[in-house]
Amino acid sequence: MDTYKQKSWWKILLMIIGMIIIVFTMFYTNYLSKRLAESEKKYIEFYTQAVQRISKSIESENLELQQQDQSLELKIIANVKNPIVVDWGDGDLGGYNWGDEKDSDQKFLSGQLKKIKKSGIPPIVPAADDDPETPDPQYPKIYYKYSKLYTLITWFPLIQVFLISIFILFGYLIFSSMRKAEQNRVWVGMSKETAHQLGTPISGIMGWIEFLKSATHPTDDQKEALNELEKDVKKLDLIADRFSKIGSKPALKKQDINILIENTINYLKKRSPKNIRYIFNPSPESEALVNDHLFSWVIENILRNALDAMEDKGTIKLETKTDSNKIIIDISDTGKGIASGKLKTVFKPGYSTKKRGWGLGLSLAKRIIKEYHKGKIFVLKSKINEGTTFRIILPKV
């Protein structure tokens, strides 16, 4: 239980760190894009001033002004890479850096001008000579788009988040599959070793029971005790057989689910506290392909958990239902219930509410139902101090 609490805290911590990295990246990128936007605006202002000076020299009657070296202005114009639309008014547009044909295409430039205006980038208007704050009506408005570098910088955080998400997703899937494979190998090895270790003492106890039956003249009570002891030993033998089947593909046979459930209830009834009441509502046509040993183990495991949850007093209700091509088994108890945040955790290895529990019972139950019987098992509902209902769904024959 503590393991899963620590795991949750680690997830929250990693999420917080990830969010901090993303927020910092977006903030820093936003800062860079603003600085770049300011720089590009300056370039367009230089471009505007350069065009303005060249225009004045061409229009001027002053021969000295016409003969001035304009190489600096031409270099400024040549180094501006932003796409530009020059608005002369009355629908007369000029283009720069759009491409040779598009620079003079009025329809194309008109569409681009609408997009630029919609984006909110203000135009650059050449200032009058006598007042730098007043626009010069002789010259057009200069509209421009941000460069490709600016666009790439503004999209960088989203691209980074996308790539990091893909990396984390693939990493999670790979490590998750590796962890599950490792868990499976541990469970299979542990199960087969347990079955092997149980085999010898079980055989010995069976021999001693037969010896006691033949060597003594037991009373009726002693006979009943020996019969129940024999049942328990057979149950141990069955448990060993179940463990030996983990990791192997079990043989599935057409079985009546109701009979398997009833047999499990009858076995546990004699071993349950007197104040525990069992209710079983079977439905007809409850046949499915199951392995009787493993399926009975699942039912028994859930019933034992219910007994632990009720603490020697309460009601366990079992019900089978058929729904088109499915058999539904509901197992309810009136025990302590499960907190809403733990409904999925109960099937994970290592989770247990019992001090001495290993937390493998429900995990193995899920493996048996999901992987071997192609069914589903989950907590249908649970309320603290009111009880829990587990649901098993199996394919109908």
The beta-strand count equals: 10
Q: Mean pLDDT, as a whole number? A: 80
Strand content: 15-25%
Domain count, please report it. Answer: 2
CATH topology of the largest domain: Heat Shock Protein 90
Largest beta-sheet details: 5 strands, mixed
Any idea of the CATH class of the largest domain?
Alpha Beta
Please explain how this structure is put together.
- The strands form three sheets. The chain has a five-stranded mixed beta sheet. Strands 2-1-3 form a three-stranded antiparallel beta sheet, with helices on one face.
- With 397 residues, the chain is α+β, with helices and mostly antiparallel strands.
- The chain folds into two domains: 2-146, no CATH class; 249-395, Histidine kinase-like ATPase, C-terminal domain (Heat Shock Protein 90, 2-Layer Sandwich).
- It contains nine helices and ten strands.
- It is rod-shaped and about 135 Å long.
- The longest helix is centred in the middle third of the chain and has 68 residues, at 148-215.
